[in-house]
Amino acid sequence: MQNTPSEKIILDVGLAFTQQQFETLFRDTKYHIIYLGDDNHAERVSEYNTNNNVSFFPYSKLYCYPTETDAPEKEGKDIISIIDSIINNKLTFEIHDRCSHRFLFNYTNRTEVSLISMILSFYKFLLEQKPQKFILYECPHHIRSWVMGKLCESLGIPVYYCRNHITHWRNVMLKGLSSDAKILNGQEYNENIKDFEKEMFLNIAKRYSHGMDAIKPEFQEVMKANKTKKLYSLYREIQKNWRSPVKIAYKHYTYKCYNRFCRSTPLPDKYIVFFLHLQPERTTLPEGYGFSSLYKAIRLLNDVTPDDVKIVVKEHPATFYTHCNPFGRWPGFYDDIASIPKVHFVPLEEDPYKLMQNSLCVSTITGTVTGEALIMGKPVINFGLNVIMSDTLPVGLYNFQNVKGLKNFINALPSMSKKQISDNYIQIINDEILNSGISGITDESQWNNSFEAIHNANQNSRFKLIYSAMC
């Protein structure tokens, strides 16, 4: 009979893995696994377990979790200070608002009651279970996993999660819920890049200066598949979603609100380009860490840039060919940004790589454009999580710290060398970045930049990382 390990970890990965992968994790783990998830997830994954070293807890059951003791003080921290530290974190309220889906009566006092109840219940659960780690598939962006993660950190329990590498078929394991989260450097979390991977990356890097036709971004492929030069079409939307007339009407009205601000006039001579994120999404909430509001970042840029520098804003194309809903976009969203004096909107179909090429600087919250722009020799302002995640800060990259530092960086833009930025970043990639993380593909034939290829690579590489953390 198999012995139950004494040390425990919490695992929150939803249904991210195949049955075979779950069975492998449960069989080989050196810990007792506490699987946390939705009711149906916990029930389904429990069917894959044949060992006695896994416990399954739906989050909903934690609210009535039986405990023999009240919440005592832990390592000098009383429960009130822990509650206050989590509730006073602005991200907690923002994630709660996004996940609660209540348009009526979702006011502050009610939200606070909900959060306090959640914190107290989860706190007692953690004191009873005493886990060594909290491991997630990705940065927590549901209110339950976010609160659990912040509670774990309050109690000194490390929080680990996976994130995409700059090569999209690789992932790294991060520690810590903050904008300066650290890559785990152990050998078990990193493998040297294979020759075919390096060749793939360098071939991709060479194409960035040749625009959309060379890069083939997803939205261009969508237009090609639809045989049109326009990304959004009311007719296609009706064909696709005719059973959801309210969604069709909402997306159409929101698109018209965006489109009326898009100018047919030439681009400004000097500009910083800001690419809006698809929202709601993890890359801004929580990974914006203080900049989940795109308006906040753009308004700040407006206030610190010289008078002759404009801010060119382009919407994320997927907003209008995938999902557009009130939690991410609303008609007034574009009115608010358009009211910022230096803003210049451009159409959805505008070539993003030409926008970068002709700009003074590229700005984003946590977007993949950071690495793309640096390869092209363009300076970058990054407001959220440091997506480059190297020990050496690349030349031409400013990770937001304060307004003074931002203003100094912008004032120094004319003196920055395109070649120096590109060469330095390529050097850092070769010296530090390429050999970090774990690959999700074994040969070049498994990668074609499609959604399916990205999903499979993520699943495989993140399974390997989580397996390393558990087994």
Question: Quick recap of the structure?
Answer:
The protein is α/β, with parallel strands linked by helices. Helices cover 43% and strands 13% of the residues. The model has no long low-confidence stretch (mean pLDDT 88).
Describe this structure in words.
The structure is a single chain. The mean pLDDT is 88. The chain is of the alpha/beta class and 471 residues long. A hairpin with a 5-residue loop joins strand 5 and strand 6. It contains 19 helices and 14 strands. The strands form 2 sheets. Strands 1, 2, 3, 4, 5, 6, 7 and 14 form an 8-stranded mixed sheet that branches. The protein has a 6-stranded parallel sheet with strand order 10-9-8-11-12-13, with helices on both faces.
Note the topology.
Blueprint lengths: L7 E5 L6 H10 L3 E6 L1 H8 L7 E5 L20 H9 L2 H11 L7 H22 L1 E6 L6 H12 L4 E6 L5 E6 L6 E2 L11 H12 L5 H4 L2 H9 L7 H8 L3 H15 L11 E5 L18 H11 L5 E5 L3 H4 L9 H8 L4 E4 L5 H6 L3 E4 L4 H7 L4 E3 L14 E3 L3 H9 L6 H16 L4 E2 L11 H20 L1
Parallel strand pairs: 1-2, 1-4, 2-3, 4-5, 8-9, 8-11, 9-10, 11-12, 12-13
Antiparallel strand pairs: 5-6, 6-7, 6-14
What tags apply to this protein structure?
alpha/beta; 471 residues; six-stranded parallel beta sheet
N- and C-termini, Cα separation: 19 Å
Number of strands: 14
**Oligomer kind:** single chain
Low-confidence stretches: none
Tell me the overall shape: globular
Strand content is 5-15%
Biggest beta-sheet profile: 8 strands, mixed
Radius of gyration: 23 Å
Number of helices: 19
Structural class: alpha/beta
Tell me the helix content.
Answer: 40-55%
